[in-house]
Amino acid sequence: MAGVFIVEDDTSVQMLLRIALRTRNHEVVGVAENAEEAKDAILSLNPDLCLIDVCLKSYTSGIDMAEYVIEKLGIPVVVMSSDDHPTLPVPFVLKPICLPHLFAMIGRALETPRF
């Protein structure tokens, strides 16, 4: 079981992720709709993994947020987007979300050692 923080501005996707993660015994430890509110929450909650939408409606992009979480906090990330991003160096899930692929990418991300 992993503690997962979700950074997603679409509430229907947030709900889908909450339900899906619960079915796999993961705990959603927090949710934010933009990168700015996510940063403080992630720092205080120290999740095992972050799911981050690439296209956030915020000053900081999802890609910048993912880089911050990985490089500064050492927390694994899975990014989500409706556009294909084959060059991203992190586990990636294309929207609409295919749950088996999501869980495979979560497993892959959690295998990454934290520093």
Question: What is the count of distinct domains?
Answer: 1
CATH class: Alpha Beta
Count of extended strands? 5
CATH fold-level name: Rossmann fold
Range of strand content: 15-25%
Runs with pLDDT <50, length 5+? Answer: none
Please state the second-level CATH architecture.
3-Layer(aba) Sandwich
Query: Within the largest sheet, what's the order of strands?
Result: 2-1-3-4-5
Give the fraction of residues assigned to helices: 40-55%
Assign the structural class, choosing from mainly alpha, mainly beta, alpha/beta, alpha+beta, or little secondary structure. Answer: alpha/beta
CATH superfamily heading = Response regulator
In whole angstroms, how far apart are the ends?
Answer: 20 Å
Number of helices: 4
Sheet with the most strands, sense and barrel status: 5 strands, parallel
Radius of gyration: 12 Å
In short:
Helix content is 42%, strand content 21%.
Topology of helices and strands:
Blueprint: E1 3-7, H1 11-23, E2 27-32, H2 35-45, E3 49-53, H3 62-73, E4 77-81, E5 92-94, H4 99-110
Parallel strand pairs: 1-2, 1-3, 3-4, 4-5
Helix pairs in contact: 2-3
Description of the structure:
The protein is α/β, with parallel strands linked by helices and 115 residues long. 42% of the residues lie in helices and 21% in strands. The chain has a 5-stranded parallel sheet, with helices on both faces. α1 links the parallel β1 and β2. α2 runs parallel beside α3. The longest helix is centred in the first third of the chain and has 13 residues. The mean pLDDT is 92.
